[in-house]
Amino acid sequence: MLEDVLILAREGFAEVNAVLGLLVAAVAALIMRKWARLPVIAAGAVLVHLGLEVLAPVIAESGGFRLPPLLELHYWRSAAVLLVGYLIVIGILYAIKRVVIKS
Fold first, then answer.
1. 68-78, pLDDT tens digit by residue?
2. What is the pTM of this model?
3. What distance in Å separates the CA atoms of residue 40 and residue 17, rounded to the nearest whole number?
4. Taking the alpha carbons of 78, 84, 86, 92 in that order, is the dihedral positive or negative?
5. How far, in Å, CA of 56 to CA of 24, rounded?
6. Residue 9: exposed, middle, or buried by beta-carbon count in 10 A (0-12, 13-18, 19+)?
7. Would you say the C-alpha torsion 13, 18, 20, 23 has a positive or negative sign?
8. How far apart are alpha carbons 2 and 4 in whole angstroms?
9. Residue spans per domain, the chain
């Protein structure tokens, strides 16, 4: 059980530790005001991340709009992995923000 949680956390951290994930996490950490808002902010970051993944080809004019595979289990597992990753990364960035800014 604990090993599964650690694997999920490792995968989530690796998934968020890319350019898109770090940008979304940095903005989310700057917006966040209290530790109690971390789950809500992380869920919002996941929605933004998934939305940007869908819209990136449209914005770059390299492809058309395609809906994500909402009925497939692997899509929701990847969303859960992203949520765990954003919880970790936003938490770290918010802690750094609190130390640096002293808010």
1. 888 999 999 99
2. 0.87
3. 20
4. negative
5. 14
6. middle
7. positive
8. 5
9. 2-101
